[in-house]
Design brief:
The protein has 367 residues and is mainly alpha-helical. It contains 15 helices and 6 strands. The protein folds into 3 domains: 64 residues, no CATH class; 117 residues, no CATH class; 174 residues, Orthogonal Bundle (hpI Integrase, Chain A), CATH 1.10.443.10. The chain has a 3-stranded antiparallel beta sheet with strand order 1-2-3, with helices on one face.
């Protein structure tokens, strides 16, 4: 028999049945979710079927959460990178009412399959969403092993995000094709850079932002939120306390960038002090996500117009980070590991596509 009790933290379901070794207690965020799970379980028990996970007599009190609660606890108790917060928000609608008792390999395969066949997401997007939720489940395994016995997402085989023949066949019936990863490889030729710099003459803030991105491989938000306290000109470094992937890093400054920053700070000392140390006026200093998103959008649009008027209509501001990374490979002998520390790439595999830039270096070692 199933009963539902309203608790401060949600709705608690209790199921008693002669086939169960002990009463089942499960907590859900909504009464609807509790009722749905209770009906499903009672239906199975009526047929004499007991889920294997409920048969262990030595288990502690059985407790089941929704994935929504798992994500909420994870975000509440951890310093989660902004990128993962966005990804978890994106996946929430498709997983929030699912109970932890349903998180098996079949569910994981089905979730990935739906992202391809229903949502038609690119493989890269699928991998990102999978990674964010898998990291949440990893934490659940460590902190609440009584709730989650395994991380089904870690059981998926390599290449799970690639569209299979079966996926392609189903999409074809809808008149659609499979999605593939598109790696943007836009470089900045010298003539375009010259025209952009000419367009930016007299616009010191925009020019400095352009130089920072091109010389340091920093992301736009990392640039426009800079505070003078983060800049150490004698040591030629910029310290980024919290970046997109949640980790801090030291960004080394090329000699020309040190000179540019030194001159800019000296010339704008009064206005920088009035902004409480913020290097740029583009941002108000408000750390609210909606403010940061709006600032990024406004700056992206501003530079899109500058690039268009400079004859580089298909250039995006983020392409400057790609160009800066390419130049690190072309102009230095730094290893992939050291370059990743500069750019902030957590996974060195992300830098593999830059390896071709050093083909000439390899050729030099041949007979």
């Amino acid at each position: 028999m199933a009963t539902i009790i309203k608790r401060p933290y949600g709705f608690q379901l209790r199921v008693s049945h002669k086939l169960l070794p002990k009463d089942l207690w499960a907590t859900f965020d909504t009464r609807e979710a509790a009722e749905q799970y209770g009906k499903q379980l009672e239906g199975l028990l009526a047929q004499g079927i007991v889920p294997a996970a409920l048969l262990e007599r030595d288990q502690p009190k059985i407790e089941i959460w929704t994935v929504h609660r798992c994500i909420a606890e994870y975000l509440k108790n951890n310093s989660v990178p902004l990128s993962d917060q966005k990804l978890l928000k994106a996946v929430m609608a498709s997983v929030e009412k699912i109970s932890t008792g349903s998180l098996n390999y079949e569910w994981a395969e089905g979730w990935i399959r739906d992202m391809k066949r229903i949502n038609r997401l690119a493989p890269g997007t699928i991998r990102h969403r999978h990674g964010a939720l898998a990291r949440c489940f990893d934490w659940m395994l460590r902190k609440h092993p009584e709730i989650m016995a395994q991380n089904a997402l870690r059981l998926l085989k390599r290449g799970f995000a690639t569209y299979t023949d079966a996926d392609i066949e189903i999409l074809a019936k809808q008149g659609l094709g499979p999605r593939v990863d598109e790696e943007r490889d836009r470089r900045l030729p010298p003539d375009e850079e010259k025209r952009i710099r000419a367009r930016l003459q007299g616009r010191k803030e925009e020019l400095l932002l352009f130089d920072l991105a091109l010389e340091t491989a920093m992301r736009m938000r990392e640039c426009y939120t800079l505070h003078v306290s983060q800049i150490n000109l004698p040591k030629r470094t910029i310290f980024l306390e919290r970046t997109k992937n949640g980790s801090s890093r030291q960004v080394p400054l090329p000699t020309p960038m040190v000179q540019i920053l030194s001159a800019y700070i000296e010339d704008h000392r009064t206005t920088i002090r009035a902004r409480q140390g913020r290097l740029f006026s583009f941002w108000s200093g408000d750390l609210a996500e909606e403010v940061l998103v709006a600032t990024t959008a406004a700056l992206s649009a501003r530079f899109a117009r500058i690039f268009m008027l400079s004859g580089a209509a298909d250039l995006h501001f983020h392409d400057l980070r790609h160009e800066a990374t390419c130049r690190l490979y072309e102009k230095t002998n730094l290893s992939d590991v050291l370059i990743a520390k500069i750019t902030g790439h957590k996974d060195i595999r992300m830098l593999r596509r830059y390896a071709s830039l050093r083909g000439s270096d390899l050729a030099a070692h041949l007979w």
